[in-house]
Structures are given as C-alpha cells and as structure tokens.
Design a protein that fits this description.
It is built from 11 helices and 17 strands. It has 321 residues and is of the alpha+beta class.
C-alpha cells in the first residue's frame, strides 16, 4: 500500500488465516505475514487462504476483510476519512472481474475507486516516459499473471496477459520434488528453493549451486532431507519461463513497426517478483536479441507507479478508469 506523500507504508502478502467453528462459521485469525507463516502448518479447523488468485479476487468476503484491515492499519488518525484508492489490475480481465474489484474496495471503505492496468502502473513506477510519442516495453512478472505491454502517449498500444507467473513456477517445483524424490514440500520450502536455486540461464562461471530441502516422504510418511541443485531447478521451471518468453515475442510481433524501432534501441524493462529470478534477463536477451533491464526494486514497481498516478491528477485522468 502506497499513501500519497508518504510512499509505500505497507507490504504484506495477501493471505488470510480463518478458523472454522462447530457451527460452520468462519472467524479470521490472522492476516498478511502472520497468516502466511501458517501456510501448511495449521490443524484441520484452521485454514490459511489466498483470497486472490491469478490476479483476480477469488473470495469476495475475505478480500474485503483483508483490505479493510490493511486500510485501517495505515490510516493513523484519519480513520474516519474514506480515502480515494487506486488499484492495479491485470490487463484484459473481464468487466465482471473489474466490477468485483471496484465493489470489494468500496465495501472496504473507499470513497472513490480508480483502476489502473498493471503494465501501465509498472511503466510509471519504472520511470518510463509514458507521455512521450516513443514506445516503451514493460514485462511485469507477478504472482498470478505476467503482463507484457508496449506503451506510448499515455496508452497501451498492445498488451498481453497470461496466467503463468510465480505461482505456476512454484507448482512446477512442487510437482518435480514429488516425481523425482517422492518428497512433499510446503510453500515456505518452495519459496526458499526458488530464491536460492531458481535460475533461468546458466551462470557465466558455470557454477552449480546446491542446497538441502526438507519435507515428508510420500511413501513412508517420514520426514526426510534431500540435496538439490540449481541445474535441475532450471530444467524444472523452463516450461513456465518458455511460456513467458513466447508471450514477449508475441507482443513484439504485434507492435507497429515505428514503435518496434524504439524498442530495439530502448529495450525491455522487467518488473515484478519474477524479475528477481536469477539470469531471467539473460534468457530474454538471448531469445529476443534486445537489451533487457531489471527495474530498481522490481517487487514494488507497480505499487509505486499507482502511487505516482494517484499523486498527479493529470496522469490519473489519462491512465486510470
């Protein structure tokens, strides 16, 4: 969450932990980081849930409760003031999904709700010249979706959104550990593997990194430890990465010739958590032949871009709806 004049004031995962009582009613126990620590560690009557999946709202009531809690936690003494809120959304979601986002945020306490497409917010947050008659290409690899867009004159010339991103990479790692080692691992272990060993292209020095992974043996049910390396993780996640590269190439193919010339010299900007995967910029550069740059602090680029649009009314009117 970004507040005008203050910058980013809250950075929490969208996870809610709920308790199911004997009457079948749910009670919220924890939100954000506290709830994420419960993933895979809860008893039967407690569940840690992600109320937003693939960039859209999957559980209306839990998302509303989560947003209401976070909005109140950052409002300080202005809790009685209903804020103007701008929300980033994936490009190409349906009108129904947009309406659900708008209604959920209003129910959580907003006075006015603006929606901004994630590629546009990412471009603003990365400092690209979106108002000028030159094109910029941004690729935002988030948790649920990857957004590829060519932007010029405050508008998206062409964009493509695919539901292949960080979550899909996690799923591939989980399935690989099951197939290769008969090992069942949790979300926390997957995140560690992705951060430590995840790589899209071999290192220049040819180094192979290794780590131990802990989980439960699927046959015996007994906890065990296995050693894995960066080479096998790279092979495992190449499926989702190849899909992302294909979306980038498709976006380039659909870009007008004049704007394509700008991209040839200016290159591609990577944002989102997926931009932190080791050597992903090298992979995209090798596949496209274009310069590739990772934005500064790619995890917060979209939030910062939405915040800039919120602070500058002239930009807000041009890029949000």
């Amino acid at each position: 969450m970004y507040i005008r004049g203050k910058g980013i004031v809250l950075n929490e995962p969208s996870v809610v932990a709920v308790h199911l009582n004997s009457k079948g009613e749910t009670e919220i126990l924890a939100l954000g980081s506290e709830a994420k620590r419960m993933l895979g560690r809860t008893p039967g009557n407690i569940a840690a849930i992600r109320p937003m999946r693939d960039g859209v709202i999957a559980d209306f009531s839990l998302t509303e409760a989560m947003l209401r809690h976070f909005i109140k936690s950052v409002q300080d003494r202005c809790a009685l003031i209903r804020p103007r809120i701008i929300v980033s959304i994936p490009f190409g979601i349906t009108q129904v999904e947009k309406r659900v986002v708008r209604e959920t945020v209003k129910s959580a306490g907003a006075r006015e709700v603006y929606l901004i497409e994630e590629p546009m917010a990412a471009a603003i947050g990365a400092g690209l010249p979106i108002t000028e008659p030159i094109s910029s290409m941004v690729v935002d690899i988030g948790g649920g979706t990857t957004e590829c867009a060519v932007i010029s004159l405050n508008g998206i010339v062409y964009s493509q959104s695919i539901r292949v991103a960080g979550d899909k990479i996690d799923e591939e790692i989980i399935q690989y550990m099951k197939r290769k080692y008969n090992l069942l691992i949790g979300e926390g272990s997957v995140e560690s593997i992705k951060m430590e060993l995840g790589n899209a292209y071999p290192d220049a020095d040819g180094e192979t990194r290794r780590m131990e992974s802990r989980g439960r043996d699927m046959i015996s049910g007994i906890p065990k430890v296995v050693e894995i390396n960066s080479d096998e993780i790279r092979e495992t996640i190449m499926g989702p990465l190849a899909t992302i590269v294909a979306a980038i190439k498709d976006t380039l193919r659909n870009t007008p010739a004049e704007l394509a010339g700008d991209i040839t010299s200016r290159g591609i900007i990577l944002t989102g958590g997926g931009a932190l995967i080791r050597n992903i910029d090298v992979l995209i550069r090798m596949e496209t032949g274009l310069p590739v740059t990772i934005a500064e602090d790619p995890l917060s680029t979209v939030a910062r871009g939405a915040g800039v649009a919120l602070e500058q009314v002239d930009i807000l009117k041009d890029v949000a709806f």
